[in-house]
C-alpha cells in the first residue's frame, strides 16, 4: 500500500464473523486508537509521515492465528510532486494506478502496463517494464509481483485476492482489480486491459468518435495516440496523402469542433 506524505490513510481489515476487538501492531509495537465494528477493523493515520511506513498487523487476542498484515510505503513527497527535499516538481499523471517515483518523477507501472505514463495495456500473461516477460503455464494467476519502492507488491493485471487467484469481478480490471471500467458507446470491459472499443470509437472509455471527413482528395482522421493523446493524421487508404493538405484539414477540423 503506497501513500504520500500528508495523505489521510485508512488501513482496513475485514473478517467474516465477530472475533471481538482487534489488536493492531506496527513493526511488532502495539498501536492504540483503533476501531473495530461491523466485521471490520480500521487503523487511521490523519496525515502520513515517513515514520508511519512499516508492517501493520491486525489480529484477535482470543484467536492469535487469525489476522492479516500489510506493508505501508510512504513516498518522500506530497501527492502529485517529486524531487525531495523541496518536492517542487510535478509528477506525470501515472495511469492505471502507476506510482510516481519521488526521486526521479518517473511512473512505476503495475505488472501488465507500460509506457512513460503506464498508458499502454499489454494484455494477460505478461509483465516487466516493457511487458517483455511472460508467466509460465500461460497464466499469472497466484503470482505476486514486487516492484521497486514506492510501488510495492501487487497481483498481475486481471487478478486479485490474498493469493492472486481470484479473477476480477465484472466491471473491474487491472492489477489487484483496482480499476473500474466506464466503457461507453458499446465498449466492453476486459479484465486485463480495460475497455475494448468498437471500431468507430476511441479513448480509455470509448468516449471519443473517430471523425472522418474528406476534402481535396485528402481524408483525415482523429486517433488516440498513447504517447501524445489525441492527434490527427492521414488515412493511408488515400493514396499520396500530402502533408501540407493534412495540415489544412487539421485546421479545418479544429474549427468545426470548436463550433
TrEMBL record:
Keyword Transferase: yes
Domain of life: Eukaryota
Domain EGF-like: 88-119
Coiled-coil region list: none
Keyword Kinase appears in the UniProt entry: yes
Record key words, sorted: Disulfide bond, EGF-like domain, Kinase, Receptor, Transferase
GO molecular function terms attached to this record: kinase activity
UniProt-listed InterPro entries: EGF (IPR000742), EGF_extracell (IPR013111), Ig-like_fold (IPR013783), MEGF/SIB (IPR052108)
Pfam family name, one: EGF_2
Disulfide bonding pattern of the chain: 109-118
Record's protein name: Putative tie-like receptor tyrosine kinase
Amino acid at each position: 500500500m503506497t501513500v504520500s506524505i500528508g495523505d489521510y490513510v485508512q488501513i482496513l481489515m475485514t473478517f467474516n464473523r465477530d472475533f471481538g476487538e482487534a489488536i493492531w501492531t506496527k513493526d511488532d509495537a502495539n498501536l492504540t486508537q483503533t476501531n473495530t465494528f461491523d466485521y471490520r477493523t480500521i487503523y487511521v493515520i490523519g496525515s502520513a509521515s515517513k515514520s508511519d511506513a512499516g508492517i501493520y498487523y491486525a489480529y484477535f487476542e482470543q484467536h492469535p492465528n487469525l489476522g492479516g498484515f500489510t506493508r505501508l510505503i510512504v513516498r518522500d513527497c506530497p501527492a502529485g510532486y517529486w524531487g525531495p527535499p523541496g518536492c517542487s516538481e510535478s509528477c506525470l499523471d501515472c495511469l492505471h494506478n502507476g506510482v510516481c517515483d519521488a526521486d526521479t518523477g518517473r511512473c512505476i507501472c503495475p505488472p501488465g502496463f507500460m509506457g512513460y505514463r503506464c498508458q499502454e495495456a499489454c494484455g494477460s500473461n505478461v509483465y516487466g517494464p516493457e511487458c517483455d516477460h511472460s508467466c509460465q503455464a500461460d497464466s499469472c494467476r497466484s503470482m505476486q509481483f514486487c516492484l521497486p519502492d514506492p510501488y510495492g507488491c501487487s497481483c498481475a493485471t486481471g487478478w486479485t485476492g490474498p493469493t492472486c487467484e481470484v479473477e476480477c469481478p465484472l466491471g473491474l480490471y487491472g492489477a489487484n482489480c483496482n480499476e473500474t471500467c466506464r466503457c461507453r458507446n458499446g465498449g466492453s470491459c476486459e479484465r486485463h486491459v480495460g475497455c475494448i472499443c468498437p471500431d468507430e470509437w476511441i479513448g480509455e472509455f470509448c468516449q471519443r468518435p473517430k471523425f472522418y471527413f474528406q476534402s481535396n482528395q485528402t481524408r483525415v482522421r482523429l486517433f488516440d495516440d498513447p504517447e501524445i493523446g489525441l492527434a490527427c493524421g492521414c488515412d493511408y487508404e488515400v493514396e499520396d496523402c500530402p502533408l501540407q493538405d493534412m495540415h489544412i484539414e487539421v485546421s479545418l477540423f479544429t474549427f468545426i469542433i470548436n463550433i
